[in-house]
Write a structure and sequence with these properties.
This protein has 177 residues and is of the alpha+beta class. It has five helices and six strands. This is Lipoprotein.
Length: 177
């Protein structure tokens, strides 16, 4: 069976796909969020930094899901109630006006993605025991009508608190306490 016509057809169709303009534009908001999510740590081995970060996540109530130390990746999650008094009040108000049942948030899964990568010098060579850490927090909210929505959490306090805990844990790891 000759696969060449199929491959040519697939390439033709792939060439017809248009990428929306400004899809990969770096905005000031994106740079600010990346700055919030990223920190640099010097003088610690990658494995020790991952261990310190895992300890910080567990202190925050997260359950570790995946850890691949060779790749510098760690994921964790925790379940929380997502019921909001304002949302419940709005649903009751809509129901009283005859608008029917309005779905409200019931629970959420907060997920964390953690990535460590080495810092490189101007020649592209990794600097010994110097790493960038990037963490992102997302949540998936389930509603009473079984619909869901997801969002990235952007509160600076969340990231500041996490990195303060990691810094304390890094200190304890370095002291072998």
């Amino acid at each position: 069976m000759n696969r060449l016509p199929i491959i040519i057809g697939m390439l033709f169709l792939a060439g017809c796909v248009a990428v929306p303009p400004n899809t990969f534009v770096v905005t000031p908001e994106l740079l600010q969020q990346r700055h919030l999510e990223t920190r640099r740590y010097d003088g610690i081995k990658e494995a020790d930094l991952i261990t310190a970060s895992a300890n910080a996540l567990q202190d925050l109530g997260f359950n570790l899901e995946n850890s691949e130390t060779k790749l510098g990746v760690l994921t964790a999650s925790k379940q929380r109630d997502a019921t909001s008094g304002g949302e419940v009040a709005a649903a009751v108000f809509v129901a009283l006006l005859g608008g029917g049942a309005m779905p409200i948030s019931k629970d959420q899964t907060i997920r964390v993605s953690f990535v460590v990568r080495p810092v490189s010098d101007s020649n592209g060579k990794a600097i010994l025991d110097s790493h960038f850490v990037r963490v992102t927090f997302q949540r998936v909210v389930r509603r009473t009508d079984n619909s869901m929505y997801a969002e990235t959490l952007r509160e600076p306090e969340l990231y500041t608190d996490f990195y303060e805990r990691v810094s304390k844990s890094v200190f304890l790891e370095a002291q072998k306490i």
